[in-house]
Amino acid sequence: MLSSPVATLSPLPSNFQRSLHEGSSTDMPAKSEHLSKIIITGHNLEKRIYILSLDGIDTNDDEQDKLFTMYSIDTVHSSYLAAMSRVRQYTQFVALLKRDEDAWAQRLQEAGYVVMDESLCSMTLDGIEWEDDEQVLLKCTTDTVLANYIAAQNRVRQYTQFLTILKGEEAAWAQRFQKASYLAPIRLAKNRCLKPIASCGDKTFQTQPKPIHDPVGAVCDHDSPAFAYHNSDALDVAMEDTTERDHTMSVDPGQHSSRRTHRLPPRNFEDLLPADEDINTSEDHPFPVAETQSPPQRRIQRVLLTLRDSLQTAFNVIGLCRQYPRRPSFEPDKFIPSSLLAHSCPKADVHSTEGSDPFPGVSEPPYPFPNMTIYRLMIWMNSGSHQKSEAEVTRLVKDVIQAQDFNPRDLDGFSARKSLRALDNDKGKDAITFPDDWLETDITLDIPTKSKDDPSTSFSVPGFHYRPLVGVIRSAFADIQAGAFHLLPFKRLWKDPLDDHQERVFDELYTSDSWLKAQDDLQRQPKEPGCSLERVIAGLMFFSDATHLATFGTAKAWPLYLYFGNLTKYARAAPKSGACHLVGFLPSLPDDIKDVFSSLPRISKSGMATLHAHCRRDLFQACWKHLLDADFLNAYRHGIILQCPDGISRRVFPRIFTYSADYPEKVLIATIKDMGACPCPRCLMPKASFDLLALFRDMQDRLTNLRAYCLVKVNKAREFIYREGNTVDGSKVQAILGEGSWVPTVNAFAEKLGPLGFDTFRMLVVDFMHECELGTWKALFTHLIRLLYALPGGNLMVASLDNRFRQIPLYGNGVIRRFANNTSEMKKLAARDFEDILQCAMPVFEGLFPDEHDAIIQSLLYRFAQWHALAKLRMHSETTLSILDATFKTLCRQLRNFRDFTCTVFTTVELPKEKSARERKAARERLDSSNRDPASGGRRVKKFNLNTYKFHAMGDYLQSIRLFGTTDSFTSQIGELAHRALKAFYPLTNKLDTPAQLARHERRRRILRRVMEAGHSCEQAPVELPAGFKDHHYIPKLSRNNPLDIFSFLRAHDNDPAVAMFIPKLKDHILYRLQKLDVSYCDHTFSDEERNSVTISDNRLYSVQTMQVHYTTYDLRREYDTINPRTHSDIMVLSGETKPQHPYWYARVLGIYHMDAWVNVGGRVKRHDIDVLYVRWLAPLVGHQSGMRRARLPKLAFVEESDCDAFGFLDPGQVIRSAHLIPAFVSGRGSTSLRHGKSFARQDDNLDDWEAYYVGIFVDRDMFMRYTPYGIGHPTVLREITRDCADADLEDSPELGDNDDEYRDDRMGGGDDADEGGPGGEEDDEDGEEDEDTDEEECNDDESIGDPDDGGMEDDIDEEDDHQTCRTPAHPHTRTPAHPHTRTPAHPHTHTPAHAHPHTHPHTRTHPQASPTGIAIPVALGHGPKLDSLAGSTRA
Q1: Lowest mean pLDDT across 240-249, 404-413, 871-880, 979-988
Q2: Which residues contact 1166 (CB under 8 A, 6 or more apart)?
Q3: The dihedral of CA 587, 592, 598, 600: what is its sign?
Q4: pLDDT tens-digit profile of 1269-1301?
Q5: Residue 738's pLDDT band (cuts 50, 70, 90)
Q6: Nearest by Cα to 463 from 439, 437, 442
């Protein structure tokens, strides 16, 4: 029991003192008469039984033992209730003390204010009047107040500390009670009590624990959050031979709170700043934490208790928190205050730590050069670009020549070769070696001879350059970047501010299921003898891919990269972050091996090809056997003791999580046949079933037919080859290995790490870049081009498609690039180019196919883009993963519908590019053979093929994200970007022994980086955002290089509708901004007198070319868009409607201005610096049904010039982001909205406009997320409006029909048992991509997600008049919540109720309503309807 508070504390009230060591008598359980005797006579025995029962020590099996066990539980429960009562009482007392402290603080503030201001003649402290001649007494009173405030502070601090002790004691008693409750059934089971309820005299003991009262008096269950808060030590229960489990009732996290049916007009949205919300750098104000406890299992036969100290942080403003299964001792993001970290790790002992100095011999600069001048010059030479450029010359001057320690005399006798030799340490005895230095070895292969009598032939492959993996791990943990390593995994939870439901978030590898399980398995392993160090994991992520080193020639390299999953993916994805570790160059078979093959007896040409493939597989696995050496296996089993950046020694265990590679390399790693009968490296599903995507049979086979390595069969097959003389692809070998498409090569991962529980095939993660963008989407796009050629006038159709792609506007900084070439030819297109094609494909393909097929293709393109955006998200939640699954199923149905309906109507043949490639290949084969017959000159038939591995791999994304985090964490794009460094090194070599020279250049850069770290010259300063980056937008107001005289501007654009009422609109906008009027003033019109109160200095505006709009992405990254009236002029703002049907309004920026405005208010003139945007509004087309349920993009058109609000001014603070508006090519160009001719509204010098535009919601992932309510980092107001629009769309939509895709599945044989045919005659394209595609990267940095499609084909077909230009959903005086410029076919004199079908009229419009953020746009211009006209409900 606890002792009383320290003597220095003030005396407590009598009721607090009396209850300090007493529990409430009403809470004490009633005891029988027999148990009362035990209390008096058997206290010592009771204590012994109690301790033994908690410690699991068996005692005598007698009736008395049972009685003491029962009593022990009651005693623990009573002690727990008493401890809880003390905590409740002291909590109330501390609250009283804090109120007293706040009162004294307020008095002190008032007294200090009066003393400082002598002009005041009186003051009031607690109602006491003081005269101004009593200043001395006033000063004394202030000191008294200060003394009382300090005393109150001390009381609060002391009792708060004592309350913390009481809470700890309460948590300890809670855990003891739970232990006693669940150990009691075990003790009773030992006494052969078979029933779950055991009788004890007149007392009945139940296995169900008693409810616990929290400090505020509420009763909570053991699984409730209140119980989790009181228990600091979580109890991990592992069960064996469980016969029955009781599941406690818990609150369903999916249940949402009631939703309001009426929402007030939206306000100005405020973007979130994650940097300030997610990182807590203050140690004085720690986060409140809730420490969780795993719910125990009941009625078990055997239990293993493992004490686990868990930690859950509080939810931040965004709604995110972390749940650590074990309390971390180091946290790199400073998300957790140090007071909450574990302190169980000993400090590093330099003598006992293995490899305590991973960089021996490294000194501070200028090591290893004689002076700083040469040091700086060599740093410049071995960094940056190898090409001469303006930037490199500038860097030479600033970093070297202008340095303070630069001395030209130090360059006397300078020799670059001599300095490089000093850097390479090739001086003999003075050479310094590092544990991660490059090593070189030869690989010996055994070539079978096809003879029982002759032994195998040995062949040596020279030049395998590699770095020991253990040495790389030591260096990585000693590197400065190790300070950002996450050593313990955690779950990231999100509480949605909209409805307070909680769900899990998936993003990083160290928040994934695989790492959590690996850490849990590691903790269950027996500790090393005599070692009490904390055990952590080094998460290894490998990537390898062959690449060309030069544009011309045959120079290649096959690098192997290593990344550490402990580091955030945002750092790993940056090519210049230093997170990439080059650990080896995998060799290829030399050409002279063909001489060995030729010398073998009775070998054919096909036999040589088979033997060459066998030796290539053996060579790859032999290289990995060298990498997985004895040191690595020892570290894998027992760990290595390393000193971490916080000065703590830990035992680090390497674990391989992912291996990213393209398909040809995956089959090498998995030791399976390339495109065999079972081509998937993760499962044994046959290739003939690949087109059953998303059907029940397909999803079941992925879970039940997982690959498991069969080492016994492989060894047996190798005996047939090497001892009995069978061929590599002989019948005996195929009989053993053919069922799973195995090959007779021993898998190094399975052989060495398999006995340690490592799954070789699970690490082969999906490859989004090669398998989707360069795989499935490229195959679909290619077949769409074939279909266009198959149409009548196909050449013209393809030419029209290329012309449309060339007219796609640019977007962002390389997000959507210019489609310069003929896109249909697909020449030298990288993955990012195919991604751009997919994001812009719908408007381009619209109208090119017949109507019945055009609707199918439009829906297919939408669903593919939606799945692409979902699969590429950087942050997933449980909700988005379920949407990804539903979207995948819908996409698969539409793919089969496209194959079986559209593709069967047309006869498609090879593209010209495909025909030329086939003929070139045939010509090469004729040269190598004796057959000189020319190949057929006709085009071959090509069909759309779903039976490929790349389509099959689309079903594995959901599971991969749960296991390893989002796809951008392990995409092969990260490794492709690492190739840039090698390609920069290659021109510096002499082209001889390329791997050795590349390794030498890599070592030079690595050593120089370590020297810089040793000299503290590269210490990472706190990352500071650019000026204004935390602000909403940035306009260079100091730039006044482009003054614009207003009257000269208006004279230059005389009779131009785009500048009509320019000055009145500008002054109205200024008045509304300065008066901060809201939507209640939407009927207000400013008078001429009010407008004359605004004076623009010198009648001059200052034009600015660009504006930056800063925003927080859905994954909590801070980004910006650049708005340029000439190149990137389209923007989106938040809808200001009462009940919007679409969450955003859109406009085109015509000018960016800032000005000095003088406003006369009540005779006082005040200057204001105001920035504005002059915009041209666009409105949604009525009759066009869009949204994710209908699989159509939103469609817009410019507001007609006759509308007085077609042009206007906008506050830059209302802009959310730039928008990507794609012309609706099928609608053509015209002058419906603005008369033909030059205008200020047409800054591209065109004479007309596109009649309509589509909103590119797939332009990046963040843009897509803004059309769903699931963006975690998006403002709550924005997400709420998006959700309400989706709900309104669901309510207003007609009932959905049956799904035609499902109908076609049923028609083909019924559900998952249907056999949907084979490859269909198309050759598989699984042997890798062209080299020009593999080394490119994607430029898209943002993300998105969508809703599942539960409707049929009718939902995706949009029958509308694309040339419709009518506007307004109702009469001008009808109550309408639609967009102010919505084009609606309503008669001007007809009242249109909601959901009606009004008559069309070409000249009708709806008057504007509220502005995007609550400021009415028409009112700011001096026009608009009254407020009561906003209450209606007409569907736009």
Answers
A1: 240-249
A2: 1158, 1159
A3: negative
A4: 999 999 999 999 999 988 887 766 554 433 444
A5: confident
A6: 442
Helix (H) or strand (E) holding 653: strand 649-660
- Read off the tokens for 1253: 């535009």
Integer Cα distance of 399 and 532 in angstroms: 48
Q: List residues bridging with 548 in a β-sheet.
A: 556
H or E segment at 630? Answer: helix 630-638
Alpha helix (H) residue ranges in 1180-1241 = none
Query: What burial class does residue 1203 get, using C-beta atoms within 10 Å of its C-beta: 0-12 exposed, 13-18 middle, 19+ buried?
Result: buried
Q: Cα(1023)–Cα(182) distance, rounded to whole angstroms? A: 51
- Tell me the sheet residues that pair with 706: 683
User: Dmax of the chain from CA atoms?
Assistant: 122
- What letter represents residue 970's amino acid? F
Candidates 230, 240, 219; CA nearest to 297 is 240
**Could you tell me the two tokens for 1334?**
């593999």
Closest CA to 319 of 351, 362, 352, 272: 272
Asked if 633 contacts 752 with a C-beta cutoff of 8 angstroms, the reply is: yes
Angle at 287 between CA 286 and CA 291, to 5 degrees: 120
398 DSSP 8-state letter: I
Side chain identity at residue 993, one-letter code: D
Q: Give the pLDDT confidence of 656-677 residue by residue, as tens digits.
A: 999 999 999 999 999 999 989 9
Tell me the C-alpha distance between 1254 and 977, whole Å: 33
Residue 1344 near residue 884, CB atoms below 8 Å: no
User: For residue 1400, how far is the Cα from the chain centroid?
Assistant: 47
852 alpha-carbon distance from chain centroid: 38
Instruction: Give bridge partners of residue 540 from the DSSP assignment.
Output: 564, 656
Strand partners, 1210: 1173
The DSSP-derived string for 963-992 is HH--GGGT-HHHHHHHHHHHHHHGGGS-SS
704, with CB counted inside 10 A (0-12, 13-18, 19+), is exposed
The CA distance from 525 to 1343, in Å, is: 40
Structure tokens at 2: 């606890």
C-alpha pair distances (Å), 602 with each of 450, 610, 723, 773:
8, 14, 17, 44
- Three-state SS string over 419-433 comes to HHHHHHCCCHHHCCC
> 1130-1134 and 1118-1123 as β-strands: parallel, antiparallel, unpaired?
unpaired
The encoded tokens of residue 844 equal 């381009």
My answer on whether omega of the bond before 366 falls inside 30° of 0, hence cis, is yes
Burial class (CB in 10 A: 0-12, 13-18, 19+), 278: middle
Per-residue pLDDT of 813-831, as tens digits, reads 889 999 978 999 999 899 9
- Which sign, positive or negative, has the C-alpha torsion 1145, 1148, 1154, 1160? negative
Question: What single-letter amino acid sits at 1309?
Answer: G
CA 971/CA 975 separation, integer angstroms? 8
Q: How far apart are the first and last CA of the chain?
A: 71
Give the separation between CA 904 and CA 1316, rounded to whole angstroms.
Answer: 14
Q: Are 1135 and 1144 in contact (CB under 8 A)?
A: yes
Specify the 3-state DSSP secondary structure of 694: coil
CA dist., res. 810 & res. 832, Å (int): 14
d(CA 28, CA 371): 81
* C-alpha span between 1064 and 1418 (Å, rounded): 12
Strand partners, 1131: 1147, 1218
- Cα–Cα distance measured from residue 46 to residue 48, given in angstroms and rounded to the nearest whole number: 5
Contact 68, 42 (CB under 8 A): yes
Reading the block at residue 925, the tokens are 């084969």
pLDDT averaged over every residue in the chain:
75
What the block records as the tokens of 1231 is 């002058």
- H/E stretch holding 1250 reads strand 1249-1250
Rounded-to-integer distance, Cα 1324 and Cα 1326, Å:
6
Query: Hey, what are 980's tokens?
Result: 């840039």
